Amino acid sequence: MATFNKKANGWQFRVSYYTPSGKRRFVNKQGFKTKHEAQVAARVIESSKDKGLSVETSNEPLAAYFEEWYKLYIEPGAQYNTKHHYTVTLNILKRSSIGEYAINAITPRLYQSFINDYGADHAKWTVKKINAQIRAAIKKAVYDGELHRDFTQNVKLVYDESKSRDTVWLNADQTQTVINDLIGSLQTSQRPISRYMVLTDLLTGLRIGELMALTWEDVDLDQQTIDINKSWDYVNDKNKTTKTKSSNRTIAINSTLVEQLKELREFQANKNNIHPKTQIFLNNNHRISSVAALNKQVRNVLDECEIDIPDFHFHSLRHTHASFLLYKGVSIFAISQRLGHSNVQITMGVYSHVISEMKNKETDKTLAALDDLDN
Q1: pLDDT computed for residue 361 by the predictor
Q2: Per-residue confidence at 164, pLDDT binned at 50, 70, 90?
Q3: Burial (Cβ within 10 Å: 0-12, 13-18, ≥19) of residue 78
Q4: For labelling alongside 108, which of 30, 85, 116, 132 has CA 20 to 30 A away?
Q5: Three-class SS of residue 6?
Q6: Contact status, residue 307 vs residue 178, Cβ threshold 8 Å
Q7: R_g over Cα of the chain
């Protein structure tokens, strides 16, 4: 039977159990905001005891546990960017006081305090990513019986809204204006390769690494398709596998892009600068343009078109592509496959802003139609 006491720092519970050798031991945990929270946590331990499971939990520090979990389950076979993101989280835990706490001593309130402190001066995406990684590790600890309760559950994400970049995109008229401007600039003798990349991404919605890795072997201009089967590691300048299995896909392209790519291929052939396995978008230095250079080119194009959208960057072209298709009535399932998302829920989450706007417009149309009936 568990006992409960109210302490200065919150409610505490105590559960007794016997070791296999017959010695009596106690599980003590405190810091719960309410007695109910303490009762819920105590019931988890008592349930394990009733089932004959071990009630002894790990007292390994959070930072050490996270590092061990990462090296065992994440690092093997992970790509550079994935390793980098997890290493960032590990370093945050090593620098934070919560990283020194034993995982069986961390309460939901303590973890919430950590998120509050960290999120006070960090963007939403950063806080969300770090919480997701820590939570994955803790879920594994619960599954393995090293913890009785997931202290990350129901945490409220706190972040600095001024540092959180909103998802931005071009509307239909702006998209057409940009396309016209790009095509016009591609008729010059210079044919800037970065502008071909902007146009291609706007009309395909590829991830930037997928776009960089494209070769002429991947493009079938007769069938009007592009086969996405690899990505470009722009940190280490080499090919890598795509983000997920579903990222390997073949998409259709429209006649506008086909014509522009035909002209680019002919231009490169005349300069003896073409090979089926050579990347399409190599600049004059036979290198792929940097992300910074591509972002700058996007800003230049928008300035030429007198379009002022703060925070618009190269990845916003992908958002524009998907948002445009949604507004045109293309199904969310078809868009999800075209973007290479692993499931449609990801697409719905990323483009919830567009779906919400469309829902509001459909509601207005519905009410207008019903009003017509009244008249």
Answers
A1: 67
A2: low
A3: middle
A4: 85
A5: strand
A6: yes
A7: 27
Give pLDDT tens digits for 130-140.
Answer: 999 999 999 99
| pLDDT score recorded for residue 61 | 93
* CATH superfamily entry for domain 172-347: Intergrase catalytic core (1.10.443.10)
Report the pLDDT value the prediction gives residue 335, as an integer from 0 to 100: 95
Rounded to an integer, the average pLDDT of 7-29 is 81
| pLDDT tens figures, 264-296 | 999 998 887 777 788 999 988 888 999 999 999
**Domain 62-163 classified CATH 1.10.220.10?**
no
User: Which among 161, 166, 160 has a CA at the least distance from the CA of 120?
Assistant: 160
The distance in angstroms from the start CA to the end CA of the chain is: 70
Query: Taken in order 94, 100, 105, 106, is the CA torsion positive or negative?
Result: negative
Residue with tokens 């020194």: 100
Nearest CA to 312 out of 302, 321, 322 is that of 302
Residue 145 burial by Cβ neighbours in a 10 Å radius (0-12, 13-18, 19+): middle
* DSSP characters over 60-125: -BHHHHHHHHIIIIISTT--HHHHHHHHHHHHHHHHSGGGGSBGGG--HHHHHHHHHHHHTTS-HH
Crossing angle of helices 193-204 and 291-304, in 10° steps, is 80
**Which one-letter amino acid corresponds to residue 219?**
V
Amino acid symbol at 260: Q
For the chain, the structural domain boundaries read: 3-50, 62-163, 172-347
DSSP state of 70: I
Q: What is the DSSP letter of 219?
A: E
Residue type, 361: K
Query: Positive or negative, the Cα torsion across 185, 190, 192, 196?
Result: positive
**CB-CB contact of 279 with 251 (8 Å):** no
* Contact criterion met (CB below 8 Å) for 58 and 146: yes
Rounded Cα distance between 62 and 57, Å, is 13
pLDDT at 333: 94
Count Cα atoms within 13 angstroms, Cβ side, for 228.
Answer: 29
- DSSP secondary-structure letter at 192? -
Helix-helix angle 172-185:255-270, to 10 degrees: 20
Over range 193-211, report the average pLDDT: 96
Residue 358's pLDDT band (cuts 50, 70, 90): low
Residue 351: pLDDT band (50, 70, 90) is: confident
Q: Which residue has the tokens 């506008």?
A: 256
